[in-house]
Amino acid sequence: MKKIIRSGRFIDPKSGTDAIMDVFIAAGKIVGLGESPPGFHANREIDATNMIVCPGLVDLSARLREPGFEYKATLESEMAAAVAGGITSLACPPDTDPVLDEPGLVEMLKHRARSLNQAHVYPVGALTQGLKGERLTEMAELRDAGCVAFGQSNMPLPNIRVMMQAMQYASTFGFVVWLRPQDMNLADGGVAHDGEVATRLGLPPVPVCAETVALANIILITRETGARVHLCRISSAEGVTMIRAARQQGLPITCDVSANHIHLSEMDIGFFNSNCHLIPPLRALGDRDALRTGLLDGTIDAICSDHAPVDEDHKLLPFAEAEAGATGMELLLSLALKWGAEKRVPLARILAKITAEPARILGVEAGCLSLGATADLCIFDPEQYWKVEAAALKSQGKNTPFLGMELAGRVKYTLINGNIVHEG
Fold first, then answer.
1. 383-414: pLDDT as tens digits
2. CA dist., res. 232 & res. 376, Å (int)
3. Which of 142, 193, 255, 314 has the fewest Cβ atoms nearer than 10 Å?
């Protein structure tokens, strides 16, 4: 079907375009911007007056829970959540059951995702077999099967020699290694930031040095091997400072931050609110502010949802025993807009953090809206508020620290390959 999106504010962060214009779509591609192609007759018109037309969002961390954890969520429920949040491309970590360490598993996941005709799924393959941190996977075979990068998800990589070997191998073949910096010995058993809240509540702490010690190792080995590294979900002010210095030295490092961590701190745990049990833990207010500044100055490249649906039974346990994680894909746009509004960031720069920048990190053709590009779009009303309610979330996981809050930015339409997959 041919479509016209009329009178929307068209923002493409990659090209810098920001103007009121019509968008013309045919055969899944953008065939006209502003002016109608000759002989174009639309089957459907979308009135986008007072709305933003932007690239579909790109999420760098979304657990779909398949295979193996269907009691937490299914591919169908989480893909519906993705498009409801305006997300058209997403990366899923390898910590499924079985782990994504075999080409057949990767191919099966991609086939299942394609059959739903919704968001594009880009698997991150396991860096080590079974995520045990001992033996490297066949990265070349996994890349051929569809993996865009290789990582350990939240599992530790305790052996520095294995990390060195992995990054040497990745550097040789041009692969990207995704690592979440946390020293397993310093963080062992911890569930909350090592600060006044953990002390008052008697919760086992995770010190900031658990992140910075691991970061130091990663940065030194990156300098030694030249491997491209993406640092997942930075959480501390000291971590931001170290990454800023490493990038000023020209090291090939990128990083992201969870949308939760740019708004919340250890204080939000309150009286054992298990919805705030996250990995990495929510840290001090100073850390939160440093993360927000890191986004502003470009030290932190992208905002991700860190979507990790958890079933209710595992969230109703005492804080230290509750499973870490929160649903996030449907909140990604609104939480990014909230950060931007509070820091007075231009809309195009906000959108870049959830479209063009994560697409660049993934190395995929997404996050832009040029002539001839695939018509993956998000159309949203930036002024419409919506209330975060469990019953309204498409995700099977209903747990989020933002339950009951009103957020601005309502997704009205999501288009993938020119097809309307969500209409709200």
1. 999 999 999 999 999 999 999 999 999 999 99
2. 25
3. 314
pLDDT tens string 64-75: 999 999 999 999
Q: Taking residues 284-297, what's their average pLDDT?
A: 98
Q: 216 burial class (0-12, 13-18, 19+ CB within 10 angstroms)?
A: middle
| pLDDT number for residue 158 | 86
Nearest to 154 by CA among 280, 242, 321: 280
Look at the alpha carbons of 179, 180, 186, 190 in this order and tell me if their dihedral is positive or negative. negative
With beta carbons less than 8 A apart as the criterion, state whether 219 and 189 touch. Answer: no
pLDDT at position 283 over 90: yes
* Site of tokens 């090592």: 194
Q: Strand 149-151 relative to strand 120-126: parallel, antiparallel, unpaired?
A: parallel
Indicate left, alpha or beta for 201 from its phi (over 0: left) and psi (-120 to 50: alpha): alpha
Q: What is the pTM of this model?
A: 0.97
**Dihedral angle sign, alpha carbons of residues 320, 324, 326, 332:** positive
Q: How far is residue 229's CA from residue 373's CA, in Å, rounded to a whole number? A: 28
Q: Is residue 250 exposed (0-12), middle (13-18) or buried (19+ Cβ within 10 Å)?
A: exposed
Active-site positions? 306
Helices and strands counted in the chain (H then E): 13, 18
Query: Is pLDDT at 299 greater than 90 in this prediction?
Result: yes
Report whether 127 contacts 134 (CB < 8 A).
no
Instruction: For residue 74, give the 3-state DSSP assignment.
Output: coil
Number of Cβ within 10 Å of residue 57's Cβ equals: 33
Question: Average pLDDT of 31-60?
Answer: 96
Q: What is the pLDDT of residues 105-134, one digit of tens each?
A: 999 999 999 999 999 999 999 999 999 999
273-302 as b/e, with b when 16 or more CB fall inside 10 Å? ebbbbbbbbbbbeebbebbbebbeeebbbb
Rounded distance between C-alpha atoms, residue 379 and residue 399, angstroms: 26
Query: What mean pLDDT do residues 140-153 have?
Result: 98
What is the mean predicted confidence (pLDDT) over 43-72? 96
For residue 40, give Cα distances in angstroms to 22, 150, 163, 228, 419: 13, 44, 55, 44, 17
- Taking alpha carbons only, the member of 189, 299, 186 closest to residue 239 is 299
Could you give the CA distance from residue 193 to residue 172 in angstroms, rounded to a whole number? 37
Could you report how far apart the first and last alpha carbons of the chain are, in Å?
20
